[in-house]
Amino acid sequence: MTFDAHAEGPLKGPVFFHRRELDAILRVYGRMVAAGEWKDYAIGGGEDAAVFAIYRRTGEQPFYRIEKRPALARRQGEWAVLGQQGMVLKRGHELAQVLRLFDRRRFTVVE
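The chain above was modelled as a monomer; its predicted structure follows.
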């Protein structure tokens, strides 16, 4: 965070993933690509959230979105996995907890 001598508090910058967070997400992504389930991804950061979008085929809408929203850290948890229709599939305070949604033994893709 940066500080401005003339402002009342810290200046907010864009939200993005830290290296360890991105490593954890990419491990899950790599496993699913190796299984032939996922094909592409996109990463974005913004004022309110950082998003890792997962695609089954290039050029479609994201199949899943992993979102980091720091504003929700004290309430529902800053991490969420959203489905294709925008429905929250899993939300939590810890990234590892949220990524368990994609565990091999509990997760299967249905067409």
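Strands lie at 2-3, 10-11, 40-45, 50-55, 64-68, 79-82, 88-92.
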